[in-house]
Amino acid sequence: MADDNGAHAGTWALPPHLSAPTEAPTGDQVVDADEAEEFLRIFHGENPDAGPVERRVAWVRTEIEMTGSYQHTTAELSFGARVAWRNAARCIGRLYWRSLRVRDMRAVRGATEVATQCVEHLRLAHNKGRLRPLITIFAPEVPGRPAPRIWNEQLIRYAGYRDADGGVLGDPRYVDFTSTVTSMGWQQPRERGRFDVLPLVVETPEEGPRLFPLPRTAIDEVRLTHPDHPWFAELGLRWHAVPAISNMRMVIGGVSYPAAPFNGWYMGTEIGARNLADADRYDMLPELANRLGLDTSRETTLWRDRALVELNRAVLHSYAEAGVTITDHHTESQHFLKHIDKEARAGRKCPADWSWIVPPVSGGLTPVFHRYYDTDHFKPEFVVDPDAAERGLKGCPAHYADHRPTPPEEEFKPVLWAYLRGPVATGPRAGSL
Fold this sequence. Notes:
Strand content: 5-15%
Largest sheet: 4 strands, mixed
Structural class: alpha+beta
Radius of gyration: 22 Å
Helix content: 25-40%
Shape: globular
Distance between the termini: 29 Å
Number of strands: 17
Number of helices: 11
């Protein structure tokens, strides 16, 4: 349900339905008026109490003609965010799309303020363990005034430290990101561990990239134990409670929101079958198999499968014991088919990427395995721009190194756009919350 970037891929190429259909906005691109109208007609079609659509379309087209963009109403923003989740082809947990809570932070542009609201997002989403689907939407791209960006793939991710022998302590996925933020001034813990939380990196055109270590009060982690094996706790494994994706760009009616962190809650396999099990992540299966006394001399003993099931049992057991919301892949598969049925009865198609919807454990035992899915591309949507994906893994290159506000002499007409312009970026510096 979390649609965890790191949980489902090591090195990966973005599929066409999730990749940005065009080059990422630089802040000087005009909103497509036809795309805006298409969204408005969807909004008014599903919200008949919103009033006459033609009047709103005329207003928005005029606003785009004058300024190059337009401002969503609060109702349009909330609806657009929920429909972007409804259209997320990789997410199995879309049955709950209507329950998404929307925090409208479009007035927030400064790096410190963005980071502060990200911390508040984690606290609100956690909700004392009863996780709630939540999105915090920061300033959109406006012609002449680029928006802030969050480099991290998720608000909470773990550092990876490469040693002299080539081994890695922590999460190998973020070795390069860890190196980059360290060079930017992040102070690594005196005693480095496998689960050191990385700082947030927020980049604005005015300030450049800045670092913000997360306060411990914003980070809830679940220590993993096993219902049948007391020794499992000795492994020292844990994972964070709130899976808040933070480097995907949300597009509603042609308006791009590059910083819009959102979360649902974890499906156990995202942690137990990918983050902790993948060979290029924490690679825990060999150690688990050894502890379980399994025969690892040949593949036909299915030692990987048996260790994987026990690891996933531990994840589900531990989150339940800690009172933190989580779901299992069998239950969520059934819920997804219910979602598809509800969408069909509403007269809508439900796009889905089979390779992501089918769980990585016992896929053939789940009902989502035995069917085909619509692969149409719908908007509003969440997209991952290639440069954002690279920054999420490597911490570079800085977005505004190549995309700065257009100089006044190169400004597009009309001159009203000049009032939306902000200053250019400066170098990296560290911040605190």
